[in-house]
Amino acid sequence: MPAPATPHLAIDLERMQANIARVAEAATARGVALRPHAKTHKTIEIGRMQVAAGAHGLTVATVGEAEAFVAGGLDDLFVAYPIWVDADKAARLSTLAARGAAISIGIDSIAGVERLVHAGLAGRIAVRVEVDAGHHRSGCAPHDAGEVAAAAVRAGVEVEGVFAFPGHAYAPDARERAAREEADALTAAAAAMRAAGVPPTVISGGSTPSLAASLALDSPVTELRPGVSVFGDAQQWELGSADPAHIALTCHATVVSHAGGRLVLDAGSKVLGPDRAPWATGHGRLLDHPDARIVQLSEHHAVVELPGDLPALGSVVRVVPNHVCIAVNMVDDLEVYDRGDDTMPATRWRVAARGRNS
Amino acid sequence: MPAPATPHLAIDLERMQANIARVAEAATARGVALRPHAKTHKTIEIGRMQVAAGAHGLTVATVGEAEAFVAGGLDDLFVAYPIWVDADKAARLSTLAARGAAISIGIDSIAGVERLVHAGLAGRIAVRVEVDAGHHRSGCAPHDAGEVAAAAVRAGVEVEGVFAFPGHAYAPDARERAAREEADALTAAAAAMRAAGVPPTVISGGSTPSLAASLALDSPVTELRPGVSVFGDAQQWELGSADPAHIALTCHATVVSHAGGRLVLDAGSKVLGPDRAPWATGHGRLLDHPDARIVQLSEHHAVVELPGDLPALGSVVRVVPNHVCIAVNMVDDLEVYDRGDDTMPATRWRVAARGRNS
Questions:
Q1: Which residues form the D-serine dehydratase-like domain (chains A, B) (predicted)?
Q2: Does one domain contain both B102 and B164?
Q3: Which range of residues forms the domain containing residue B158?
């Protein structure tokens, strides 16, 4: 096949496989289970590789992602989200359970438990109680986890355990503190659940930036759920949680202009994603030009400042998105390059769960 | 059909039609042509409405968008981008020309002209010279427009005119200045082209934030290319270039949690888009709660602070994305609500050009 048109998202297969193996080995060495978050890649082929490397199942963010992975034969799934079970979600979760899929969902309130029961899903869909470990998004307070878990058990709902997401690890010098706060919150929540007579079987945490710290800590976690670690991205690079030599997904982009003595690329926010954290140095990085900075990003233009000679008009450069989960969700296919060849993909994978927001 | 699952993007058809009519009337009153930028909606049905309301054709950003609109019967298209005509783009532009579509593309360098000629597209694809009017993205300097245009004509390429994009209008209190600078740049570029013996037929500018100022100015523009004006969004609301009463696209989202005494919605950056300009008050707005602020946005969570009683768990609220072009590009379909009914869509439109980045 001809080389795909730019811009396109390109996987370096050897690097990606090495990332999967490295994280799996680290989890095994620490004695915790892995349940990688598949929202990052949304791709059946990659989910299968993670399970083949020892993952106990996958994490997803929505019922739609669960449907896509079950259709691809990956049916041990935790939906790490406090789903409000309306008529639509009830019907779809029921269908997944009827297919024999092992599905658990997040829950952070007694009202949420009641919805599940009202929908007739008690005994068919398990839950894990979400607690807030300092990110201040969803999740009940750790000391309330016992009350929520007990309400579920009283209503006949299986409670697998407790989980948190240390999203506040996404800031400079915050990774160790977030991992510590997550361990403390999960310890408190597990104690509250034991006191309520519902001891957690699974104590789940983790994110990519906090991963190394969580593995090094004295923590009660029995399971970790990193997502981005499969690819790495510019955020992880700049936070220090991904070595650029391990980054496995880039956007191949063409130099279309030298206007103003800068580089203008045909990759913009509609393929890289518009994410830019306040602490990011720019709108993504250039893998082969670490001194370059993307100083402006439009929907189809990246404007790059870099020292020295500009790459020629028409040449192709590799851009590392700031947040790879958003970039992947913008494309239908991922081009897969193998054996260090970055000129011609070996194959193409469908982003099976792209756009599955509900 | 049942009400669609949340989150989903919802068009208020009456408002959208009023927006199309209002802009068309303003352009007619000023005596300029409209060529709306279809990258905002990427939808055939909406493009047809814009043409029916008097638009002289559509603007698109990529060859892929051009292909999608030509397939939908809209074949008078300007690709407002300095396309680097490689083998892939050459073949696809040639196919569009062979179908009889009237296609012009942007050009900002003599090297770019040479690519077009090398590809055998002289006489088949017209060009417009892009000039930088202060946004400092692509585009040559206005005084260089004559040189680029003359090189094109010498090579047998039809030069339709000149264009600019005043993207620096996207900042508080910048709209009038950006419109003025665009008018000055286009005046200078047109003079340079006349001096080079290539007088521009079309002098094209415009953006949604600068639209009112461009219409009020003494400007040489013969054509304007607003995109966002068809819907409006939170950026335009906060810049003062969209009345919230005219905003025609929202994301219907369900309240899934009251964690921490705040509202947590099931709409995150994978449907709203992660755009957040430094001057934005948050990650989007709530149409029916103008005092609310989205203080945190994850891929599937929006955390909202608002005064007074929180909307109930399970209720649906309408979120205005910061940047609607990105939101639309994340979904496959738009739900179309009519006659003020926001409970059940009248129809559904395909986002035909979604993801067409190349």
A1: 248-338
A2: yes
A3: 75-226
Instruction: State residue A339's pLDDT score.
Output: 81
Contact B354, B332 (CB under 8 A): yes
- Give the residues of chain A that fall short of pLDDT 50: none
| Residue A5 contacts B where some CB pair is shorter than 8 Å | yes
Kindly state whether residues A208 and A267 are assigned to the same domain. no
Q: How many domains does chain B have?
A: 2
- Residue ending a domain, choose from A187, A214, A231: A231
Say how far apart CA A329 and CA A9 lie, in whole Å: 11
Position A145 scores a pLDDT of 98
Q: Are residues A97 and A187 in the same domain?
A: yes
| Domain end among B226, B250, B284 | B226
| The two three-digit tokens of residue A278, written as one number | 């306040």
- Please choose, from the candidates B54, B48, B57, B46, the residue with its C-alpha nearest in 3D space to the C-alpha of residue B23: B54
Partners of B256 on chain A (C-beta within 8 Å) are 81-84, 112, 138
Residues in chain B closer than 8 A to A62 (CB atoms):
300
CATH of the domain at A247: 2.40.37.20
* Domain co-membership, A222 together with A292: no
Rounded Cα distance, A268 and B326, in Å: 11
Sequence length of chain A is 358
Could you tell me which chain A residue has the CA closest to the CA of B170? A298
Residues B147 and B198 in one domain: yes
Bond preceding residue B7 cis, omega within 30 of 0: yes
Q: Using one digit for the tens of pLDDT, what is the confidence trace for A106-154?
A: 999 999 999 999 999 999 999 999 999 999 999 999 999 999 999 999 9
Same domain, A200 and A302: no
Residues of chain A with Cβ-Cβ distance to B325 below 8 Å are 270, 299
Quickly state the pLDDT bin for B124 (edges 50, 70, 90). very high
Asked whether A92 and A118 are in contact (CB, 8 A), the reply is no
In a domain, A2, yes or no: no
Parallel, antiparallel, or unpaired for β A159-163 and A202-205? Answer: parallel
**From residue A283, how far is each of A230, A294, A315, B198, B281 by CA, in Å?**
21, 5, 20, 38, 20
Tell me what ipTM this predicted complex has. 0.97
Q: How close, in Å, is residue B214 to chain A by CA atoms? A: 21
Residue A86 with chain B: CB contacts under 8 Å: 5, 254, 314
Using CA atoms, how far residue A133 sits from A141, A168, A277, B49, in Å, is 8, 9, 21, 50
- Residue A25 is assigned to a structural domain of this protein: yes
Cβ–Cβ gap A259/B137 under 8 Å: yes
Task: Please answer yes or no on whether B358 and A8 come within 8 Å at the CB atom.
Answer: yes
Name the percent of chain B lying above pLDDT 90.
97
User: What is the reported pLDDT for A341?
Assistant: 78
Q: How many CB pairs below 8 A link A and B?
A: 177
Closest-CA distance, A227 to chain B, in angstroms, reads: 12
> Mean pLDDT, to the nearest integer, of B70-97?
97
Q: What is the mean pLDDT of chain B?
A: 97
Mean pLDDT over B346-357 rounds to 97
Partner-chain contact A88 B323, CB within 8 Å:
no
pLDDT per position as a tens digit, B181-214: 999 999 999 999 999 999 999 999 999 999 999 9
Q: Is the pLDDT of residue B87 over 80?
A: yes
Q: Do residues B202 and B89 share a domain?
A: yes
Taking residues B112-127, what's their average pLDDT? Answer: 97
Asked if residue B298 and residue B320 are part of one domain, the reply reads: yes
When CB atoms are compared, the residue of A8, A276, A303 closest to B137 is A303
| A258 belongs to a structural domain | yes
